Amino acid sequence: MYKPALQFQNVSFAYEKEKLPILQNFHFHINEGEFVSIIGHSGSGKSTLFKLITGLEQPADGIIFLHNQQKSHRLGQVGYMPQQDLLLPWRTIVENAALPLEIKGVHKQKAHSQVLALLDEFGLKGVENSFPSALSGGMRQRVSFLRTILSGSQILLLDEPFSALDAITRLTMQEWLLAQWQKRKETILFITHDVNEALFLSDRIFIFTETPTSKLEEFEVPLKRPRVLKDLNMPAVIELKDHLVDVLRARVKV
Ligand SMILES: Nc1ncnc2c1ncn2[C@@H]1O[C@H](COP(=O)(O)OP(=O)(O)OP(=O)(O)O)[C@@H](O)[C@H]1O
Questions:
Q1: pTM of the full predicted structure?
Q2: Which top CATH class is 1-78+155-254?
Q3: What is the Å distance from ligand 1's center to 149 Cα?
Q4: CB-based contacts of 9, cutoff 8 Å, min separation 6
Q5: Nearest-CA neighbor of 219 among 232, 208, 233, 205?
Q6: How do residues 100-129 score in pLDDT, each as one tens digit?
Q7: Closest atom of ligand 1 to CA, residue 45
């Protein structure tokens, strides 16, 4: 039996009253433990959706439920990982990762030992006392993901987390993220512009196809788990990829 992790019911939202709304009577729901990706052209409203989920913005109308509960104050209840790692350059890796625990009032020493216990799993053993500038892009994103996990939230919003990485590091990070998700079972919402990335990672893919949006177009990924990158060569996946690209191209004005 599926349990909803996040639901939007009849949500409307515009940045300014006189402007075209981004969402109008918008419905959306994802289940606990799902991995879903959201794709859409630039400016379609992906980050706005995340701002509404985190509570940085509030809907003009409608209700947002987290784990079946109506929540108007959602700040701090979902984990958010931005495109840029936003690690504090003057804090060491352990100090950066421990930040959400310290904010919650966990004693510094206890917070640090909680981080240290996870460093190996996150491929960060040996760099705990380094500063972010000494780490590769992939390592910095793993610190950022560790910090997001330590927020303790069961719903994680990842906003194009791998877009700044080189192609090979990006593929390695995708495999690593899937392994982490399969172990931890959080619910993940992942924004990407990369159709292959969405197909490899997700149970379902949602596309913003209109503005204002009332419903995202939804596609189920025809792949079982565990997955390997070569699964993307399967005919059903290639067919879906072609279709997704057509849907996205139909929305792009050049
Ligand atoms: N703070 C704001 N005030 C006014 N308008 C905004 C604000 N933030 C975003 N917008 C507008 O809302 C629309 C949706 O923006 P949003 O950032 O959600 O798009 P996106 O799909 O995340 O784009 P990208 O892929 O480029 O990050 C755009 O037209 C954008 O210009």
A1: 0.94
A2: alpha beta
A3: 26
A4: 27, 62, 63, 64, 65
A5: 205
A6: 999 989 999 999 999 999 999 899 999 999
A7: 18
